[in-house]
Amino acid sequence: MNHQGISEISFEETYSVPPEQTARALFSRLPHGSDYAQRLIECLATGYLVAVVESICIREMQRHVDADSEVVVGRMIELEHKGPIPPGSVDVKVVVACVW
Predict the structure, then answer these.
(1) Which residues contact 76 (CB under 8 A, 6 or more apart)?
(2) What is the mean pLDDT of residues 59-84?
(3) Does pTM top 0.90 for this prediction?
(4) CA distance linking residue 66 with residue 89, whole number of Å
């Protein structure tokens, strides 16, 4: 990777939220969360949101590394979402700051 030439990368993605990635669905599968699950609204679980954003970042960052000698790994995630994300399509805007 040309570490001198890249300090920030931005990209946008549309993601379709499947029903099994809602907070209610996730918590209903957890032994300590199943009682609480029914009180949750049908929205994307934050844990899944983190996984979706990280998978998009990994895919995009792989275009900028030497696959024979470098591996893309996450170091920190700072995530802000403005409200509940219901099942269906959502536009995701990601800014990646490269740190080395």
Answers:
(1) none
(2) 83
(3) no
(4) 33
Residue 17 neighbours by CB distance under 10 Å: 20
Residues 6+ apart with CB under 8 A from 43: 22, 23, 84, 85, 86
Name the 3-class secondary structure at 71: coil
DSSP-derived pairing of the beta strands 88-97 and 8-17: antiparallel
Contact, 42 vs 64, CB < 8 A?
A: no
DSSP character for 36?
H
Tokens in use for 56? 């998009």
Block residue for tokens 């990209």: 11
Whether residue 91 has pLDDT greater than 90? no
Residue 84 sits at φ, ψ, to 5 deg, of -60, 140
Beta bridge mates, 9: 96
- Any alpha helices (H) in 1-100, and if so which ranges? 23-28, 34-37, 46-61
